[in-house]
Amino acid sequence: MNADPRLLAFYRGAAPALRERQRHSLDVMLGFYGLTRDAQAVEALPALSIATHIWLKAGGHNHLRITRIIRSLALCHQPEMVHAFQQAF
Question: Rounded to two decimals, what is the model's pTM?
């Protein structure tokens, strides 16, 4: 990740409240994607299907959102959430 060292230092020192708000935002997006989070595990909801979740198809802006979510989690020093999110796919 080629982030500005000052930005990394800021996030490294970020308060736990910032990480908690980020996890809340992640939960909102996971619901949109047909996924759910239980502590550190991310899993598909039973209703997840390509018919109702078009983001499952190749390409599109939702795949860009996913990479931004992963980058944001990494910048805020939440590697366990990065791993769980990546494993869901």
Answer: 0.74
